[in-house]
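I am writing to request your help with a piece of structural work I have in hand. The matter concerns a single protein, recorded as an amino acid sequence and a row of backbone structure tokens. Could you please explain, in whatever detail you think fit, how the structure tokens follow from the sequence? Thank you for your consideration; the sequence and its tokens are set out here:
>
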Amino acid sequence: MATLIKAFAAQFLGLALAILLASLAPGLLHGTVRLALLQATAAAACAYLLRQPPWWLPIHLLFLPTALALLSLQLPSGVYLAITLLLALVFWGTVKGDVPLFLSSSAAADAVARIIERENAENFADLGAGIGSLAIPLARCHPLLAIDAVELAPLPWLITALRCRKLANIQARRASFWHCGLNAYDVVFAFLSPAVMLKLSEKISRDMRSGSLFISSSFPIPDWQPESVITLADRRKTRLYCYRIT
């Protein structure tokens, strides 16, 4: 809720600043488009000052210009309702501070499959599994590996559940990974956000058993020394940070 309040505050502060500047320099900022661009820039700056996560900045930059562009199309009101519902189903927990949807590459799935084989793992969890972009290929590659794909957002969870319905070794769980115990897993994987890594490290230390392995895609755990770092040959040059739990 605090994240949502900050988002609204940034937008309203940006609008107030834009209106103030427009009144002080009406010739310079004349026109709806210029005013919208100024508001977007001011809102993004306010979001930065309010210490919102970095992925909120493009949202603030694009919000008002996109809204004005859509209004100019004169679409039926039902279209906006459908878009809102769709976004809510995909980014269910984002406004409460959870992470947005990130998709793992096929290279990440291949690399984790090799790690699973090396670890002789029997139980695996994907925290924030999205649409199963990593968990599904892993289930196909290792049919004896028991996989829990944990996802809170309704639509990504449903997509994962439908994709894995013919795979006996994977379960799509609609739940917050913050409320899931991790003691049963040999390997746990997450592709989340820098904003939650410190809190996640506390959960990992508390829940995961000694000798198990935690893999973080792209984002390291602050002040933790990884056992290894694997750089992938995908488009993002993804790094997998592997932490041995002691």
User: Anything to note?
Assistant: The chain has a mean pLDDT of 86.
